[in-house]
Amino acid sequence: MRIYVCVKQVPDTSGKVAVNPDGTLNRASMAAIINPDDMSAIEQALKLKDATGCQVTAVTMGPPPAEGMLREIIAMGADDGILISAREFGGSDTFATSQIIAAAIHKLGLSDEDMIFCGRQAIDGDTAQVGPQIAEKLEIPQVTYASVIKKSGNSILVKRMLEDGYMMIEVETPCLITCIKDKSIKPRYMTLNGIMECYSKPLMVLDYEALKDEPLIELDTIGLKGSPTNIFKSFTPPQKGVGIMLKGTDKEKVDDLVDRLKNKHVI
Amino acid sequence: MSFNSADINAFQDIWVFCEQREGKLVNTDFELLSEGRKLADERGSKLVGVLLGHEVQGIAKELGGYGADKIIVCDHPELKFYTTDAYAKVLCDVVMEEKPEVILIGATNIGRDLGPRCAARLHTGLTADCTHLDIDMNNYVNFLTTSSTLDVSTMKFPMEDTNLKMTRPAFGGHLMATIICPRFRPCMSTVRPGVMKKSEFSQEKADACQIVMRQVEISAEDLKTKVIDLVKETKKIVDLIGAEIVVSVGRGISKNVEGGIELAEKLADAFGNAVVGGSRAVIDSGWLPADHQVGQTGKTVHPKVYVALGISGAIQHKAGMQDSEVIIAVNKDETAPIFDCADYGITGDLFKIVPMMIDAIKETRDA
Ligand SMILES: Cc1cc2nc3c(=O)[nH]c(=O)nc-3n(C[C@H](O)[C@H](O)[C@H](O)COP(=O)(O)OP(=O)(O)OC[C@H]3O[C@@H](n4cnc5c(N)ncnc54)[C@H](O)[C@@H]3O)c2cc1C
Ligand SMILES: Nc1ncnc2c1ncn2[C@@H]1O[C@H](COP(=O)(O)O)[C@@H](O)[C@H]1O
């Protein structure tokens, strides 16, 4: 059994975010982190590895420096890494990205007992689309929003979260599962041994040449030019006009506020 | 069946996927149909809802009351509970036959599972979690004029363009992006719950709406997942999105968490018709359940009044509340970014200010 974990390096948007004058994101100014939901996917896969001794392969599509992230994941306990990287793949939307990742996994082989884990969504785009689209292209079932994953034989039991409860879903392998953050999932740290060994573990790079003849690849729907969706405009929202800072003692401020709300017929 | 997503002229009409859970329609259906009506009028086409489920014909009429010209009902025992396999199969089959130009799907935990699966099968693009939609370019330019910092007067737009222009936040709300899908049809988008305004229900429209039952084929091979159990959390469901007034708390309550939440609840009671929300910091700390979260990864609210107590006003929080009609912020740090979007700001300790607010509101009410 092999679990492919799809991981993405994303800009850390929790701190200050710099926007270029042309409205694009100044990525250079921000730290790159492993997408938070993907940390859950990694942990879920490593837990299954602890229990079954399966192989865990971290897969990413991104620029060459993403190799560093794959090494980190290997240092946490993954067995190997796949870096999908080519200029032709840059600027891909979710349709194109999932096509390329699906083609790479297809090339490496997806056996009857294998699984693919993704994060629910990546914080740069928040789309949650790449996982289900990989599943569709590989024609395997998917379960999204997974918080608990249990394996018994070839059957996997997943707790799938809904806004107002959850479903227990049984799915057979091969399948794709997207993982959410949950209190029960505590992503592990790199181990000292892991860090020492991570550079001796296999890391394969798949470039355009390696994938362009794969049956799942359509050369006219990959990359910036081929992606079905295009950015028509990007812009920053205007700041709302600054309102009134109420003045005086605490009591005066509160009375002033309540007066104003009364005049607006809010109370 | 001949289906070619690149033959874009073969597609027409605006469709809304109408979600139901346990035979009940969900709010996004009404929001999306109301928005869909606007788009259909801009495009001069029909608005069609697609309803999947089991024994759901009875609830279809109501959808017409929000402007649908037609509802296609796909009824089958296998559609009783949502499964990706059955729903994607049925929806894609109907779409391939009828070829709609646009499909809107609510960005719920179900819509965000179904949308990408179908878009990949239909060989078209999908834009996630949209917050604004236009077809007519004039309307889009007006939208940019009021909702962006771009100098629209110096820009040229293709005025005849009839692509659906789908606007959504990116990078945690730091940027907005308008996405189009020019080469393939249908144009698909999932739409953020709570953002589109629901129109008034009209009985006349509901009566005029055509209901079409469709044959559905689902075979055992289509189904690779099985729903073993569906569990509803019995906790009280908070209707943040529909609330008239939202009182939210942030990490500012940390020195007395229970006391802070109690104050927020009392303030909500004093306003009446109000519910309590929270920032992510509060939800992550386990002080309030996840369905109370307001913001980028939480809910988008636009109540009449939004009260932010001890919330710093990170961009991801603002993304979920800045369109509220009146925003009141209480924070002890006068430089907190929440004040940049507040109509009324009070610097001070929420534990002192809020009790005074409760009293003052009650006094005004009783006077
Ligand atoms: C991808 C992403 C998505 C996110 N999504 C969301 C989201 O959906 N919703 C969300 O809220 N956040 C979200 N965040 C997190 C967001 O960036 C902030 O971390 C969060 O909103 C901070 O919450 P806070 O304002 O309660 O806490 P803090 O930032 O710690 O602010 C607490 C405030 O309370 C004030 N304060 C302290 N004591 C008192 C007192 N006694 N009286 C009055 N004021 C007091 C302080 O001055 C401070 O301003 C997201 C982040 C990322 C990266
Ligand atoms: N470039 C990528 N490389 C590897 N995995 C990805 C990539 N983009 C997205 N994913 C996976 O798909 C999930 C959803 O991403 P998104 O659809 O962009 O929100 C992520 O959490 C990852 O698991």
Care to describe what's here?
The complex is a heterodimer of chains A (267) and B (367). Chain A is of the alpha/beta class and 267 residues long. Chain A has a single domain, classed as Rossmann fold. In chain A, 30% of the residues lie in helices and 27% in strands. Chain A has eight helices and 13 strands. In chain A, helix 3 crosses helix 4 (130-138). The longest helix of chain A is centred in the first third of the chain and has 17 residues, at 36-52. The model of chain A has no long low-confidence stretch (mean pLDDT 93). Chain B has 367 residues and is α/β, with parallel strands linked by helices. Chain B has two domains: 8-222, Rossmann fold; 245-366, TPP-binding domain (Rossmann fold, 3-Layer(aba) Sandwich). In chain B, 30% of the residues lie in helices and 25% in strands. In chain B, the strands form four sheets. A seven-stranded parallel beta sheet of chain B has the order 7-11-6-1-4-5-12, sandwiched between helices. Chain B has a five-stranded parallel beta sheet with strand order 15-14-16-17-18. In chain B, strands 8-9-10 form a three-stranded antiparallel beta sheet. In chain B, helix 7 packs parallel to helix 10. Chain B is globular and about 70 Å long. Classes of the chains: A alpha/beta (267), B alpha/beta (367). Chains A and B meet through helix 3, helix 4, strand 7, strand 8 and strand 9 of A and helix 3, helix 4, strand 7, strand 9 and strand 10 of B. The structure holds flavin-adenine dinucleotide and adenosine monophosphate. Adenosine monophosphate (AMP) binds at residues 6-8, 35, 37-38, 41, 59-62, 94, 97, 101, 118-119, 121-122, 125-131 of chain A.
